[in-house]
Design goal:
The chain is an alpha+beta fold. It has 14 helices and 20 strands.
Length: 494
Amino acid sequence: MSEKPDLNAISHDLHAVRKEKLALLRAGGEDPFRAEWNQTHVSNECPALLPEGVEEGPEVSVAGRIVALRVMGKASFVKILDRGGLIQTYFTRDALGDAYDTHFKKMIDSGDFVGVRGKLFRTKTGEVTVRVAEYKMVAKSLRPLPEKWAGLTDAEKIYRQRYLDLVVNEESRRRLFIRSRVVESIRRFLWSRQFTEVETPALHAIAGGAAARPFETHSNALDCDFYLRIALELHLKRCLVGGMDRVFEIGRVFRNEGVSVKHSPEFTMLEAYQAYTDYRGMMELVRSMIQKVCAEVLGTTSVVRPDGVAIELGGEWREVKYKDLIVERTGDPQWFSRTKEEKIAACKALGLHEPRTDWEDFEVTNEVFGKLIEPGLIQPTFVTHIPKELCPLAKVTLGDDSTIDVFELCINGQEIAPAYSEQNDPGVQRQMLQLQAGAETQKIDEDFLLALEHGMPPAGGLGIGIDRLVILLTGAANIRDVILFPTLAPEAQA
């Protein structure tokens, strides 16, 4: 066996130092990567076991990653992080004997995973702490954590090395745990309304359900091209045809388009469809669901933005027609009878970048909505009866064939959820798909139209961007902050 390395002679390279410590441990018969630990409690359960005024509590066994290490001569304080948060532990020479000097002080580093067993007590400052009677290293960290406990500050590293971000940034952990609880709460709500959760294909022969550029791929086994889904809608409607009256799916959707603080090429959607109702039934559903989720996850229906503006999600929500908002913002009661050229000139007068001349008339109007109106819709607002060209899958409004029975729920200056009275007339549906305008015109899904010809009940449909909802509830500044592992260019291209 080769001579044991001398830690005092090792270079300042911390990675090398830790590798040498691992070699020493193994040479002494201890392999931290083969160790186990019986964890009986997590950190946030411990305070309840030691009531105020009680000096010493029961014995607990906890485990986690060391994130703070204050080593002193005869006693040391170590904070470990587990799924419940932080717990302080107290290592002493009196309790551990020679192991305190020969093992704990020499072999243990910040970032290591340890298991500790001991009784709870309160320090002079009142912090609940484990007095360590036994410990074991259960995984060695060969690379040090970021230097400062304040956390990562480099945005690229935060997203690319999310595992480090989760260790050192409490706010990131909070946001992503909230995301998980939001999805859990949504599921419970829909189950309580007798919805059935289903899974539909992520590979589509035709990219339908939205006007968006898809990602393309090829199946070698079937020798044909497929698209990653851009929406969940058309397969969920097939479920309605099949007699599943209330269905939903929470799934990843992919759109090969721009990246911004609000947009990611890979994001999560909830889509839900309920037979024998319409877009107004979806109003009640989404309002009740968001209020319930917010109250369960945050304990309140009021969300305060980082700038101090309060958004109240409780109570009734404002409802206003798309056309009324356009007229109000442009100050032109005759806007919808103007020519496209007149609208383009008006956009320029309103301070917008001049719309392209190849845009359709409705696209010019929607530029006013997207740039001048939507960002100001901070409190929950149902914007109803949008132009029919914006969605070919909804029913045309009775009495106004230029609009459809749709609402867009806007909160905090962005769309959170659209909902429709779903089109179930196969003849009208075919016409609307054929007339769909824009550069991203989708191919006709003949199988979907065949399904409609077998009969689909009247229904309301709803979509919610999960990422945007979590942004609202957490105050995140960027969609990447609420996606655990956001899409990034390979590091060599970054």
